[in-house]
Amino acid sequence: MSYSEPVRAVGNPVVRPISAAEHVAFVRAQRSVSFLQTPAWGRVKTEWRSESLGWFAGRRLIGAGLVLHRPVPRLDRFTLAYLPEGPVIDWGGEIGAWLDPLAVYLKAHGAFAIRLGPPVVTDTWSAAQVKEGVADPDIRRLTDLPGQGSYPVGARVSRRLKDAGWLPQSPQDGFGVGHPQFKYEVPLAGRTEDELLRVMNQQWRRNIKKAAKEGVEVTVGAGAQDLKAFHDLYVHTAERDRFTPRPLRYFETMFAALSAEDPERITLYLAHHQGDLVAATVLVRVGAHAVYAYGASATEKREVRGSNACQWAMIRDALAAGCDVYDLRGITPTLDADDPHVGLVRFKVGTGGRAVRYVGEWDLPLRPMVYRAFDLYMRRRGR
After folding, report:
1. How many domains does the chain divide into?
2. How remote is the C-alpha of 273 from its chain's centroid?
3. What is the pLDDT of residue 8?
4. Exposed, middle or buried, 79 (CB in 10 Å: 0-12/13-18/19+)?
5. Shared-domain flag, residues 276 and 374
6. Is residue 174 part of a domain?
7. Which domain holds residue 213?
8. Is the pLDDT of residue 113 over 80?
9. Which CATH number does the domain housing residue 286 bear?
10. Per-residue pLDDT band at 2 (split at 50, 70, 90)
């Protein structure tokens, strides 16, 4: 599903900077927008310079985007202009009318390339399809399975980007330096809690019941002490699962910036069992789009299923808030049972949702020589 449905362009809109207040007002007028396209996210990414841009038809604001500017090493006057999961424009229209003035503006202001990620779907696969694919040794990837439904806008956007000289950046395995092309989502619109439970697999339903029976209590965190408790558990999880954790300061900045923009934007969930913190998660919501952003779990007491309790609490709250989708974020497209990433796929498939492929991230070189130098630099450092 596309995140939002902005106003269609009539003629060629004009791109110019807008204030954070104008940007926030535009976001609030949409059904849903990626939190990566809110002004607050620019304040979280402190290592990048950010700006809000608007598309105008006359005096009317009809599109908006958060641009993160990444400088080139030893060439600080040039930047990579990055619009993660954006911009928020009418992707069903003539995209050249939207992206051409963006390129003109950004090149005039020092960008050597633009990177963007259209929030447009190209394919979906049901939980049953994914489960059958994992069990079938002849199926290695999601793309080996037939997609469900028809997504002509996604196909058209991909084709027109390619024809206009944009270069696809999505890696073969689905995970890279940018944001994921493949995600797992649970549709919520028109459903009840009972219906959501019924479409989960037996293990998920059993784990949710087990957590309740064991007396796991899920509460909403508040204040620095709860955030520190989450971070301690998150660092423990990183050590166990062998990934590099973000520092506490990052989460302090994230909660402060997103909460200042909207007090309901970000929520911390804590699952306790007999006084022990056994799991913690972070939910981010913009309009009707709820996102599972971060999670952590204790190695001890895993049998009480605190992680499932947190997930169910977030899904219920997203449903109560009128959200259309609960977004579990990235997966790899692998369905090979021997691939270490397939465990994450199995976990998310248990929710009964669907796998979704988006258009992915694309680059437009504006200064080809600088872009080639940047690309070589990124390849040498492993991106």
Report:
1. 2
2. 30
3. 54
4. buried
5. no
6. no
7. 123-149+182-222+266-358
8. yes
9. 3.40.630.30
10. very low
Read off the pLDDT of residues 177-221 as tens digits, 9 standing for 90 and up: 578 999 999 999 999 999 999 999 999 999 999 999 999 999 999
Same domain for 215 and 85? no
Question: Partners of 271 in the beta sheet?
Answer: 218, 279
Report the 3 state secondary structure along the chain: CCCCCCCCCCCCCEEEECCHHHHHHHHHCCCECCHHHCHHHHHHCCCCEEEEEEEEECCEEEEEEEEEEEEECCEEEEEEEEECCCCECCCCCCHHHHHHHHHHHHHHCCEEEEEECCCCEEEEEEHHHHHHHHHCCCCCEHHHCCCCCCCHHHHHHHHHHHHCCCEECCCCCCCCCCCCCEEEEEECCCCCHHHHHHHCCHHHHHHHHHHHHCCCEEEECCCHHHHHHHHHHHHHHHHHHCCCCCCHHHHHHHHHHHHHHCCCCEEEEEEEECCEEEEEEEEEEEECEEEEEEEEECCCCHHHCHHHHHHHHHHHHHHHCCCCEEEEEECCCECCCCCCCHHHHHHHHCCCCEEEEECCCEEEECCHHHHHHHHHHHHHCCC
**346 and 275 belong to one structural domain:** yes
* 130 within a domain of the structure (yes/no): yes
pLDDT, residue 382, reads 61
Q: Where residue 149 falls among pLDDT bands split at 50, 70, 90?
A: confident
Q: Could you tell me if 141 and 76 lie in one domain?
A: no
Q: Is the distance from CB of 307 to CB of 315 less than 8 angstroms?
A: no
Domain for residue 345, yes or no? Answer: yes
pLDDT > 90: percent of the chain: 84
The answer on 193 and 294 residing in a single domain is yes
Same domain assignment for residues 26 and 77:
yes
Residues 296 and 376 in one domain: no
pLDDT digits (tens, 9 = 90+) for 231-278: 999 999 999 999 999 999 999 999 999 999 999 999 999 999 999 999
Predicted confidence band of residue 337 (pLDDT cuts 50, 70, 90): confident
